[in-house]
Amino acid sequence: NGNNGTFVAYVFAGGESTNALARSVDFDGSGDDLSFASSSDFGFGTGDFTFEAWIKPTNWTNTYVALLSVYTTGGFHIGKNGSNFVVRSYNNADHIQTTNFPPIGQWTHVAVSRSGSTLKLFFNGIEEKSASTSYDFATGAAYIANDNYNNRFNGIVSNLRIVKGTAVYTSSFRPPTEPLINITNTKLLCCNNSSTTGSTVTPTTITANGDPTASTDSPFDDPAGFVFGDAGDQNVI
Known about the structure:
The chain is an all-beta fold. It is built from no helices and 16 strands.
C-alpha cells in the first residue's frame, strides 16, 4: 500500500484450445492437396451457399493458387488469379476480385456467402467485397489446396465448411471462436481432425495426395479464457 509506487499487474487467461476439432492440415504448396470425387453437394447451382475456412498462408508466391476448386467448367473456385484474390466460376469468369490477400503467417477466417443474388467475400468477418450474380455453379470433383493443374495453396487450413442451401453470413460478423459444427445443410466439414482425411461431414471419400500433414496449429483459443469485457466474451486485456 505504499504511496508513489509503480506496480505492474500480469493477467493471464485462456491458452490454446483443447477441443479435439481445433486441428488443421498443412499443405506444402508443391505436391499436397485433398481431393473428392464428383458430388452434387459441390454444385451450388443458383441457390444460397456458404464456404468458410481459416487459412494461414506460408506465401502467395505462385501466380495462380486454388484454395478450393470444383474441377469442372463453371465450378466454384476461390484463390489467387494473378494479382487478385478471387471468387470465380472455374474456367469462366471472376465474380469477385480484390487486391487484398489474407496476410502471410497469420490465421484469417475467409468466407464466401451467397444470399439470393448477392455474393459476398469476408475476411475475418469484415465484408471485403460483394457482387450481384445468380451464376449456376456446376457440379464436379473438388480439391482443397489445388485445382488439378498444380496451382497449389502453400499454408495451413483449419475447419473448412461448405453449407449448401443457406447463406450463413449476410453482413459483417464476428468469426466463431470455437471449432465449427455440423449445422443444417452442412455438406463438408473437414481439416479438423488428427488425420488429414478425417472429417465431421463429407459427401465422398477424402483422398490425400502428396504428403499433407495433420497439425495441432489452429486459430482457436480455450473457451474458458473468454471471460473479460462487459459481456464476458473477450479474451484480451
